[in-house]
Each structure stands twice: as C-alpha cells, then as structure tokens.
C-alpha cells in the first residue's frame, strides 16, 4: 500500500512549529528584537553588522521566482487515485493493477494566459495536471480541460504564446483572449479552428474546477508486461458533472472575486466536499492505427466517442489542501516526460516538443537541476541516481557516482531484466528527415464542424456571442474578416452571424467547405487578398 507515503514524506519537511520556541535567525540563533534595526545612536545610520536585519531583508528580496511562462495562475490539492480493476490486459503500470492500492496524487488546475495575479473566471483553457506518486516513480498526466489543442506541432508554441500574451509594447491585453495578435495568429493558422470552437464555447468558463473535465489530449501508449502496445487517450470526468458560468457571471466574478475558482476548490475540500473525477481511457489497438480519417498523432483531433467509447478505469479524490501555496502549488513541476513502466509516448509532434520543454523551463524556474528534491516533486519511490551537486542540492550522497563501477560504495546497480525497469516501447520507425506531416493534418475544419453541429441551440448562441464579443475587440479589420472567412469553412451560418455582429462582410457562400484543404488559407491570395 502506498496510501500514506506522500503524507509521511511531507511530514519530514514541515517547518518547526512557531509556537514551540522563540523567533530565530536562519542559523537558529534566538532573536529578541525584530522591529528596530541596529543603529549608531537614536538617529544614526544602520550598522552592517546587524545580521538579523540583513538576513531578514535579503531573504525578502529574493522571495520571488519566475512564474510559469504559461499556466502561471493555478490552485492545487492532494488526494488519491484508485483503479476500479486491474488494467494488466493493456498496461503494466503498477498503479493501474490493484483496486486495493491507493496512489497519492497532487493536482494543479490553472488558467493558461494570465499572470499569477490574474482573475480565475476569464475565457481560457484550464490546465488539469496530475502527478501520480506511484510505487514505480512519478507519472505526470499534464492535461487540459479541452480534448484538443491549438497547434499540431510544438515548434509553433512560442509563436502561439507570443500571440496570446499581452501586447509587447504595453503589456495590455485587450481582453482575456481577445486582441489583434491572437486573432491574427488564429486566422493565419487554421489548424487552430477546432480548439477555437472549444475556446468560444462555455467550456472555457468553468463554474468550478470540481465541475470540469480533463484530457491528456495526445494519443499516448499503454504497454503491457509482454511489451505489447495499445494507443490510449485519457479522460477525466468530474463526478459533479460539467458546469459552466455564463459570460455575464464570469465577468462579474472576475470583478467581485478574482479567486472564484480557487476559493471554491479550497473551501470544498475544507468542508469535506471532496472533488472526485473518474479516469477513463479510449483504447485503440496498434493494428487499428490507420483506421481513422484523421491521424492519431494530430492533437487538434479527438477520437469521436461513437467510434471508440471511453472505458472508466478508476477514480481520483482530492481530499487535502496544500499547507503552503508557494512550497507546493507554485513549486510543483509537471512534465509530460515523467512516465512510468507501462505508459509511453507516441510521435505526436506536439507531445515530443513538450517532452523537451517542461524540464527545460523548470531548470530555470526552479533554479537548477535538483528541483525533484523539493517535497512536492519528490517521488515516494526511492530515487537512486548518479546525479550530483548543482544548485540547491539537499541530499548527502555517499560514495562514488559513476557507472560502470567495480568499486561500489554508492553507485546503484542497474535493474535486472525482470521487467521492473522502464524500457522504451520498441516502435519501428524509418524515413527521411522532413518537415511535413500526413495529409489529414490539413483537415482543419471537419472536427470543428462536428463540434459546432453537436451543440444545442443555446450553446451555439453562446459560441456566436463569444466570437462577436472577442472579435469585436479586434481593431484590425482584415483580421476580423479573415477570421470570419475561416469560420465559414466550419459553418456558414455561424460565420454570417459573427460577421453581422462585428460589422464585416461575409465571404462567398461557396466557402462553406470543411473538407480537407490541399492548400489552406495560407496561400498568398488569402494572406494578402484582404488588403493587409
Ligand atoms: C505548463 C498543458 C502544450 C510548454 C502547462 C501546464 C499544463 C499544460 C496543464 C501547467 C502545469 C502546472 O500546473 O504546473 C498543456 C497541454 C498541451 C500543452 C495539455 C497540449 C496538448 C504545450 C507545448 C509546450 C508547452 C506544445 C511547449 C512546446 C509548457 C510550459 C509550461 C507549461 C513551458 C510551464 C511549465 C512550468 O513552468 O512548470 N502546460 N500544455 N505546453 N506548458 Fe504546456
């Protein structure tokens, strides 16, 4: 049982109880005065030798670390995960084998665009990141509350985020997600269309973190004990159902209580109303990889549930608030590359980029290579590495630190071939080095249309109003027009309602074609035909 191992580990790191003794310096020296600095006489200068003053102010001066480059604002909670039954049939992941084993988790929910101090209830994607402290090491499922993503390849992520963030000259966004640069990017990169439909829907203003879904987004791979792979998409489903705010409520909350979502999470847990989510998987046998009219490696596409139903495999309960926001919620480091035996990657180019990006950013955000020693990031499985030294090293390693090593005295042995160690899925790959994806990546509109057509009347109305509100704030007329042209590929009626609301002309009705585009809106004609 791993049930209390994370709690026991955290206990070791809790600071001394302030009620148990006097105030001290960092060195443990008792202090009897903390309001007046040491000066020469009553009116003289402060003395350098006042080590308590210097330590106090110096520490304060260094309290801030960089916020996350995206997903800066968030709220976290601890809890546990339990599988409903053994999943040995398709994965050997230890935490998915035995319903009697509880695996501790830490979850961080977040918004994407705003800085740490921004409001909760903005129109935005929500992060839904889960760290499973499994007996075979940490597994991070770093997902969002929407099942698709804006772009297909992580090489575009810096461009996308630069367009999404506030204007560089004055750091003023003209709305949560509404400003010229975002819509400029979106209208020039039609692969964003499916995700933009989700973003303009009520999913982008969840009522509560307790009432929103989570998705791993990418196609991952389960691997069983024999090394056999199965493609898998992950889904979290909230036990309370999916509920959203309406736009007026969202705006009012943002004004009256910018902490609306995180306060709700905190208070629910304090009140014993523990948020609960069911984990489901869509499984696709390896041999069915090419049986879809989209590519499983394309993160702008869902696998429709009519084609592959979601199979519930377990549930997660969040039952403890963190003790300290900075130590835990701010310093937690999720990484798509943190996988355990039984869970592996696919060649989704967005996922591959993420596998580089998270560790890279955390090396600077968390000050060097030892951040996995921070309590919230520590695995409950023992970590025995040959990594040494570096900033913020807190371990006292003994002995040597190299391999192979005939002298012993510290270097851990390699795991035997008993199936315990992680071994990368032996996928066969060959090909030329090219910058090109399969043809179906260019079908930007079919699933956007599927999403639109699956909405009720009132949901469609909300989407139209959201487009009108957000695009109505865009100053550049050609950007408005080009976005409407893109929408016409999704649904002509949608595009015309939006066009009317924001005072731009409609494209030709024939443009309502959401079939794969050989050369989508990026032809020069489309780029410059708007007078830009
Ligand atoms: C942070 C999800 C795409 C880079 C996050 C977080 C989530 C997330 C949930 C916040 C983690 C936390 O709470 O600490 C996703 C999803 C994506 C995606 C679901 C697409 C399916 C990308 C891509 C890149 C990227 C393509 C880069 C190429 C980052 C970075 C952070 C971040 C740098 C900040 C991490 C940190 O400072 O700890 N992402 N992301 N993400 N993401 Fe992504």
TrEMBL record:
Gene Ontology molecular function: any one: metal ion binding
Residues that coordinate or bind heme: 68, 108, 157, 354, 358, 365
Region (Disordered) residue spans: 1-36
Keywords associated with the record: Heme, Hydrogen peroxide, Iron, Metal-binding, Oxidoreductase, Peroxidase
Enzymatic reactions: 2 H2O2 = O2 + 2 H2O
Family: Belongs to the catalase family. HPII subfamily.
Protein purpose: Decomposes hydrogen peroxide into water and oxygen; serves to protect cells from the toxic effects of hydrogen peroxide.
Protein name listed in UniProt: Catalase
Source organism of the structure: Streptomyces malaysiensis subsp. samsunensis
Portion of the full-length sequence here: 1 to 532 of 699
């Amino acid at each position: 049982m791993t049930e209390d191992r994370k709690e026991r580990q955290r206990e070791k790191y809790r600071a001394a109880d302030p009620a148990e003794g006097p105030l001290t310096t960092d060195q443990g020296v008792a202090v009897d005065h903390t309001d007046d600095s040491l000066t020469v006489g009553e009116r003289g200068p402060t003395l350098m030798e006042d080590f308590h003053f210097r330590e106090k102010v110096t520490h304060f001066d260094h309290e801030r670390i960089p916020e996350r480059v995206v997903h800066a604002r968030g709220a976290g909670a601890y809890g546990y995960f339990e599988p409903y039954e053994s999943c040995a049939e398709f994965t050997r992941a230890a935490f998915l084998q035995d319903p009697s084993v509880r695996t501790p988790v830490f979850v961080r929910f977040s918004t994407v665009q705003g800085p740490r101090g921004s409001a909760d209830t903005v129109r935005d994607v929500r992060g839904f990141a889960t760290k499973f402290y499994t007996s075979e090491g940490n597994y991070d499922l770093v997902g969002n509350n929407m099942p698709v993503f804006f772009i297909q390849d992580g090489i575009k992520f810096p461009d996308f985020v630069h367009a999404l963030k506030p204007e560089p000259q004055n750091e003023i966004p003209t709305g949560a997600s509404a400003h010229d640069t975002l819509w400029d990017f979106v209208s020039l990169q039609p692969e964003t269309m499916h995700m933009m439909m989700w973003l303009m829907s009520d999913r982008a203003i969840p009522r509560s973190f307790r009432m929103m879904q989570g998705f791993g987004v990418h196609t991952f791979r389960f691997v069983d004990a024999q090394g056999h792979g199965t493609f898998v998409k992950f889904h979290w489903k909230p036990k309370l159902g999916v509920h959203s705010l309406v736009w007026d409520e969202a705006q009012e909350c943002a004004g009256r209580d910018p902490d609306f979502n995180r306060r709700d999470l905190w208070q629910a847990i304090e009140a014993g109303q523990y948020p609960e989510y069911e984990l489901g998987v869509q499984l696709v046998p390896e041999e069915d990889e090419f049986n879809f009219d989209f590519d499983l490696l394309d993160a702008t596409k869902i696998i429709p549930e009519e084609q592959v139903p979601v199979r519930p495999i377990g549930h997660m309960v969040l039952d403890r608030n963190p003790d300290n926001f900075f130590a835990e919620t701010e310093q937690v480091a999720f990484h798509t590359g943190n996988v355990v035996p039984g869970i592996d990657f696919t060649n989704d180019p967005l996922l591959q980029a993420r596998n580089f990006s998270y560790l890279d950013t955390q090396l600077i955000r968390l000050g060097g290579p030892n951040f996995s020693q921070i309590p919230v990031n520590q695995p409950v499985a023992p970590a025995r590495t040959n990594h040494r030294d570096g900033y913020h090293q807190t371990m006292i390693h003994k002995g040597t630190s190299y391999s192979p090593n005939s002298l012993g005295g510290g270097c851990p042995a390699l795991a035997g071939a008993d199936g315990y160690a992680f071994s990368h899925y032996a996928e066969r790959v060959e090909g030329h080095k090219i910058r090109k994806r399969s043809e179906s990546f260019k079908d930007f509109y079919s699933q956007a249309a599927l999403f639109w057509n699956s909405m009720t009347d009132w949901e469609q109305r909300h989407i139209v109003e959201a487009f009108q509100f957000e695009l109505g704030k865009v100053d550049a007329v050609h950007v408005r027009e080009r976005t409407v042209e893109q929408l016409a590929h999704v649904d002509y009626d949608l595009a015309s309602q939006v066009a009317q609301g924001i005072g731009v002309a409609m494209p030709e009705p024939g443009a309502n074609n959401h079939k794969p585009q050989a050369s989508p809106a990026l032809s020069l004609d489309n780029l410059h035909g708007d007078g830009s």
